[in-house]
Amino acid sequence: MKVVMQGEREQIQIPSGHSFRVLRWSRSLREVECVLGPDEAERVTGEGTHWHFHLEMELTLFTSGEGTRFVGDHIGSFAPGDLVLLGERLPHYWHTRHGSSGISVQWYFPLGHAFWSFPETASMTELFRCAGHGLHLRGKTAVEVSDWLQEMTQVEGLDQLALLLRILSRIQQATAAEHRALSGRSFALAAESHYQQAIAKAVRHLVAHFREEVRLEEVLKLTHLSRPTFARQFKKHSGRTLSEFLNHLRLQAACRELLESDRSVLEIALRCGFTQVSFFNRLFRRVMKVSPTAYRKSRKG
Description:
Layout: E1 2-4, E2 20-25, E3 31-37, E4 40-45, E5 57-64, E6 67-71, E7 74-78, E8 83-86, E9 92-96, E10 101-107, H1 124-130, E11 135-137, H2 139-152, H3 158-172, E12 179-181, H4 196-209, H5 216-223, H6 227-238, H7 242-260, H8 265-271, H9 277-288, H10 292-300
Parallel strand pairs: 1-4
Antiparallel strand pairs: 2-3, 2-10, 3-4, 5-8, 5-10, 6-7, 6-9, 8-11, 11-12
Helix pairs in contact: 2-3, 4-5, 7-8
């Protein structure tokens, strides 16, 4: 395989002679290759290890790995087979617990792009709009699309393009049971946001320290933003306030521990950063629609 080293790039670069790019990784989201053909790939800088957004739409499949998925204002767990369609400028981030592998396809087809010159693509506008919330795919659609994504790494040229069109058509035809929106709201962030790096630092800090007491003063010092600017930009980029974001991080961790350990609800709540078990129970019921004990019992069978 031919591998060409690339320098660090913040913006996505579509390879010359291509209208989209196919990425794959086998160990870590930091070690990503852009697949140009069956025996040719370029090494590119992986951006999936931090909170970010870009103009391009993206379809991402995890073939291995697990952790926490952040899409817009959504925070949830993911496992092997996770398949998500992301719209333009939708903030996202996958925090993997260990290593991972997978495939992504990224494209940018704004109005005026040659893609829309074919009458048959007009029906795709609704799918692209819905992708602005992030679409989690499952069922038969996810199985078929996952197979075609893996096939895309073994072909080139028109064969790759044909597979992309087949994938988009299949997602468009998915039944209501085979997809769900992840983010409660869509995002229209500026193409170039100089706050993006600051918010990424804040999110990284929260993910690393959510089990501890997180002080706003520490986050402000880290991001070099004033209190009102940080509050405004964090809500704009994540769809949540700092406390809401932190509580949902802790809640997802608690869900994992309820299933993976035999610790008491009280111990799990404290381990995940909640200082009052009564607040934890109320939040859990509000978000998960059941009590922590009932959640554990139903998921463990």
